[in-house]
Amino acid sequence: MVKLNDQTREDYMNQIIHAAVQDDIDQFRELFLELHPADQTDVFLSLGEEDRRRVYAFLSPEEFAEIFEGLDVEEQKEIAVELNKQYAAEVFNNMYADDVADFLGELENENVTDILHAMDDEDARDVRELLTYEEETAGAIMTKEFVSIKAANTVSEVIELLREEGPDAETIYYLYVTDVHGKLVGVTSIRDLITSTSEKTIESIMSNRVVAVNIHTDQEEVAQLIQKYDFLAAPVVTDDNMLVGIVTVDDALDVLEEEATEDFGELTASRGSTDISVNSFKAAKIRAPWIVLLMFLGLGTAEVIGRFEATLESVVLLAAFIPLIMGSAGNTGTQSLAVSVRALATGNLEKRGLWKTITREFFTGFFIGIMSGIVIAVLLAVIYQNIMLGLIVGMSILLSLGTASVIGTIIPLAIDKMKMDPAIASGPFITTLCDIISLLIYFTVATSFIPYVQ
User: Fold this and answer.
1) How many angstroms separate the CA atoms of 81 and 206, rounded?
2) Which candidate, 125, 78, 134, 69, places its Cα nearest to that of 100?
3) Which of 151, 263, 396, 425 has a Cα at 20 to 30 A from 108?
4) What domains can you pick out in the chain, each with its CATH number?
C-alpha cells in the first residue's frame, strides 16, 4: 500500500473526500493541495457531480487547471460542461497551449470558437497556431511555453530572465538561443548557467550543435529522437529555422503510448477499438469488417482441403494433424509480424537493413521448424508405429514454420513501403494466410509420400 507520511494513500484520500462532502473548504484545501497533481486528479474523479461542483468553488481556476490537464480527453469533455463559462476560460488560460489544443481538437468547431473567444488574446493566439498544424506532427504536439535567450545575453541577465519567465514555462532545463531574427543558433542548460561566472556571455557557453525537429516531422519520429538522445525537450523549428516551440519528454511518452496502442490495434485487427471507453456497438463496427473479410479469406482453407480430398481419403489420419500444422504456422507468423512491426516502430529496421531482418526471421523460423519437426516426427513414429507419417508431419512443420516466418516479416514491410494502412498486416490476416499456405505445404508433402504411408 502506498503511504503518504504515516497514512495510507487510501486513508488520506478519504479524509479529503470527507472534507469536500462536509463543505469544509479550509480542511479540503490544506489536505488536497499537499497532494501531487496526479493524486489530486484521482481524488477528483472519485467524487460525484455534486461534490465536484464544491471543488470548483474550493479551488481557483489556476489550481484546477493542473487537475484538468491530468484528465483524458473524454473525461475533459464531461467535466467541461460542468464549469461556468468564465471559470472555464480562466482554467484554459492557465493550461499549457498544447494541452488546450489537444482538448479543442476533439470538439466541434462552434464550441472551439466560443472557448477561444473567452480566453485571453495571447493564450488564444498560441492555441490557434497549434490547431493549424497537421495532426500527429511536431507542430501539433509542441508547447509554446518555453524560454528563448540571445547569444549576447550574460549569464546574470539570463538568470534574472528565468526568475521572471520561468514559472510560466513548461520546462527551463534547456535554454534555446536565437539570433535577432528568432532563428535557432544554439542551446545551453541550467547546469551551464550555474557553473559559469555571471559576466560570461551565452555565446561563450552555448553549444552550436542543436538537435531540432521540423514542425512537419511525424510525432513518432520526434518521440524516438527524444528517447534516443535522452532529451527532456526538443526544439521545433520552421523550414527557415525559426524557433516556434518545444516538445517535452512527457508529450513524447504520451506519443509512444499512443503509437504502441495503435500498433497493438493493428496487430489484432482492432485498431480504434482497443480503448475501453469505446462503447460495444462502435467497437463491433470497427472490428466487424476485418472479421468478415478474414472469414471469406478463410474459405481458402476449405478450398485447399477440397482439392486434396483424395489424399485425405487414402489416409484419414492425416486430418487429425491439420489443426497442429495450421496453429504452429499461424503462431510463428504472428511472432515474426510482431518483430517486424516493432522494427518499423523503433527504427531498428533501418539500422539492421531489410534483407538482414528477413534472413534473420527466416532462419529463426527454420530452426524452430527443425526442433519442432524432429519432436513431432519422433512422437508420431512412436505413438502410431509409422515412421513415414511422422516424417510427413515433421517435414510439413519444418517448411511451414520457415515460410510463415518470412510471410510474417515481409507483408508488414511491404505494406509500409507502399504507404498503405499497416492494419492490413494484422495478426488475424497473417494467421489466416499462414493457415492456407501451411495446408498447401502439408498436403503437397503428404501427396508426394502417400504411397509409403499405406
Assistant:
1) 47
2) 69
3) 263
4) 3-141 (1.25.60.10), 148-248 (3.10.580.10), 280-453 (1.10.357.20)
- The pLDDT confidence band at residue 178, using thresholds 50, 70 and 90, is very high
Cell, residue 133: 498544424
Strand order across the beta sheet in which 233-237 lies: 213-214, 233-237, 243-248
Amino acid at position 281, single letter:
F
- Segment holding 233, helix H or strand E: strand 233-237
The span from the CA of 203 to the CA of 187, in Å, is: 9
Helix-helix angle 49-58:25-32, to 10 degrees? 80
Q: Output phi, psi for 185, to 5 deg.
A: -125, -10
What are the C-alpha distances in Å from 243 to residues 10, 155, 216, 239, 317?
45, 21, 13, 10, 71
| Number of helical H runs and strand E runs in the chain | 23, 8
C-alpha cell at 136: 500527429
At residue 413, the pLDDT reads: 76
Pairing between β-strand 184-189 and β-strand 148-150 as defined by DSSP bridges: unpaired
Q: 163 φ, ψ to 5°?
A: -65, -30
C-alpha dist (Å) from residue 428 to 266, 293, 435? 10, 10, 10
Q: Residue 340 is placed in which grid cell?
A: 517486424
pLDDT for 425 equals 52
